[in-house]
Amino acid sequence: MNERVTVVGAGLAGCEAAWQLIRRGIPVRLIEMKPVKFSPAHHMEGFAELVCSNSLKAEHLTNASGVLKREMAAFGSLILAAGEASRVPAGGALAVDREAFSAYVTGALAGHPLVEIRREIVSDVPEPPCVIATGPLTDGALAEAIGRMPGFSALHFFDAAAPIVTADSLDMSRVFRASRYGKGEDYLNCPMSEDEYNAFYDALVSAETADPHGFEKKLVFEGCLAVEILASRGRQTLAFGPLKPIGLTDPNTGKMPYAVVQLRQDNLEGTLYNLVGFQTRLKWGEQKRVFSMIPGLEHAEFVRYGVMHRNTYLNSPDVLGANYAWKENPLVRFAGQMTGVEGYMESAASGIVAGVGLAARLAGKPEPDFTRQTVMGALEAHVRTPARDFQPMNANFGILSPLGEKIRGKQNRYQKLADRAIGEIARVAEKA
Question: Could you say which of 31, 358, 389, 402 has the lowest number of CB atoms within 10 Å?
């Protein structure tokens, strides 16, 4: 194999993609702009810098994050190895010393004979084969160059994403399915009495919010108001806005509710629903506390909390095919948060999938199908599946293919999904 693959970006996704390529004997040119230039969120010169939390999330197999780690281990993940080597106490989660974590990854790649390291700014899309993993804060010139690629038209920006809950965690004795004025049954509706609305309102406007990063402060609220900001304009603002009950009748009472929170289906299988109009900057613990006051959501499982920030990512369903390949030229791959996966390990996992897929193609072999029975495959499927409002997604059981059988008890069902995913990933890894 004489072709050298250019990997742009030495974050978690780029480093993992590079690692998977060199493990298969393919030389890599890894380009990182630090320390020539730092993004507003980065400060360390090393690779795989953790810019926010030092937690890589849960490890147990009744959590999708734990299953994802087990899947990554099947591919000899560099990021997972770095996590194990730099572990700090964190109960049932994998948390790391961020400096030791970065040093491990940097050393593994910088010292490898098949890796050429370049510290420079990339202002154009490299010649294929290449992997672009420059993250949600992709430098301006490169972001513009990507936007000029055929089929891209422009990079997709988002200001807000509403929380997502699992359908089977809702109390359907309180929730009813209907669209306004009897026009179908497209929404799930959580009706509120006046007392319930007032209690929810008081909790919402007094809840603690997360401060935006300095580089986000001018961008956060452009064009899309957080639900708590909207509520602060007056007690009835939500009731006459996103929670207006007009055109809806609660079948339990035969009357129009005082207010209604609507949930919109978020995936094809109908296992996930988002809270319409609930983009928010509340801290995640506050979201769980306050939004669980909504009738029917008392025991809701939140697979993604609401966020409001300004990042750059691809409108992936339009431009990406299998294994994060560009539809126009599969020798060009993307990986990491810019594709629409959300989270440290999710980003690294996308790097595995992109790297393994590209390596197979360069070797003239069929690319692996990770399938939606695995967390890695389900994340990959999410970012290339057309959606009304494409938004980033993290690891959760709701995006996996349904089991096809009824399993009593949430933990039992999660364990069954985990067992299936681990068995499936072993078969994929054996062929890859």
Answer: 389
Does the global pTM surpass 0.85?
Answer: no
For residue 25, how far is the Cα from the chain centroid?
30
**Distance separating alpha carbons of residues 146 and 143, to the nearest angstrom:** 5
φ and ψ at residue 10, rounded to 5 degrees: -105, 40
CATH code: domain of residue 123: 3.50.50.60
- Interstrand relation of 55-58 and 130-132 (parallel, antiparallel or unpaired): unpaired
How many angstroms separate the CA atoms of 379 and 153, rounded?
A: 24
**Residue 329 and residue 239 share a domain:** no
Both tokens of residue 63?
């959590």
Give the Cα separation of 340 and 74 in Å (integer).
23
Using alpha carbons, list the distances in angstroms from residue 393 to 233, 343, 399: 31, 8, 9
β-partners of residue 32 are: 119
The tens-digit pLDDT sequence of the chain (432 residues) is 457 999 999 999 999 999 999 999 999 999 999 999 987 667 789 999 987 678 899 999 999 999 999 999 999 999 999 999 999 877 778 988 888 999 999 999 999 999 999 999 999 999 999 999 998 888 889 988 998 998 886 565 555 678 999 999 999 999 999 988 887 788 899 999 999 999 999 999 999 987 765 444 444 333 457 899 899 999 999 999 999 999 999 999 999 999 999 998 877 678 899 898 898 889 999 999 999 999 999 999 998 888 776 667 888 999 999 999 999 999 999 999 999 998 899 999 999 999 999 999 999 999 999 999 999 999 999 999 998 777 788 999 999 999 989 899 989 999 999 999 999 999 999 998
**Same-domain pairing of 155 and 169:** no
Asked whether residue 102 falls in the same domain as residue 10, the answer is yes
Give the CA count within 13 Å in the CB-facing half-sphere of 168: 13
The answer on 198 and 149 residing in a single domain is no
Residues 199 and 293 in one domain: yes
Domain that holds residue 9: 5-159+310-431
Same domain, 259 and 239: yes
Domain count, the chain: 2
* 208 DSSP 8-state letter: P
Same domain, 152 and 247: no
